[in-house]
Amino acid sequence: xxxxxxxxxxxxxxxxxxxxxxxxxxxxxxxxxxxxxxxxxxxxxxxxxxxxxxxxxxxxxxxxxxxxxxxxxxxxxxxxxxxxxxxxxxxxxxxxxxxxxxxxxxxxxxxxxxxxxxxxxxxxxxxxxxxxxxxxxxxxxxxxxxxxxxxxxxxxxx
Length: 158
What we know:
Layout: H1 2-12, H2 17-32, E1 34-35, E2 38-39, H3 44-74, H4 79-104, H5 122-133, H6 140-151
Helix pairs in contact: 1-4, 2-3, 2-4, 3-4, 4-5, 4-6
C-alpha cells in the first residue's frame, strides 16, 4: 500500500502544467526579446535550447498520458511509469529554468520580483524551487534504481 501511495505521489506531486507554462512563457519572451539590439530568437544557441525544451515538454506529456492509461487499465498506479515520469519531469523542470537563466544572461540571475530582471526574475526563483523537486517522492537516484531493477533487470546502484 505504501508503494502504491508513493507511485501516485510521484505522479500527482510533480504535475506537468507548471513546466508547460514556464516553457510557454520562455518561448514567448524569446520571440520578442533582444540582446545588444539583435533578436534573441535569431541566436543559434537559444533556438537549440528552446527546441530541446519544447520537445522534452511534449515527451513529459506523453509520459503523463502513459501513466494515466496504465493506471486506468491496471486499477492502481504503475510503479515503473511513475518513476520514469517523476525522474523525467523533475529533471526537465530544472533544465527549463537553467536554460532560461542561460538565455536571459546575467540579468536572469536578478532576484525574483525585481523590475530589471527579465520576466521579473521568474526563472531565478523557480530554479531555486526546482532543487527540492528531485528529492520529494523519492530522490532521482531512487527513481533510477527502481527503473534499473524493476524495468531493466539491472542490479541496484548499477
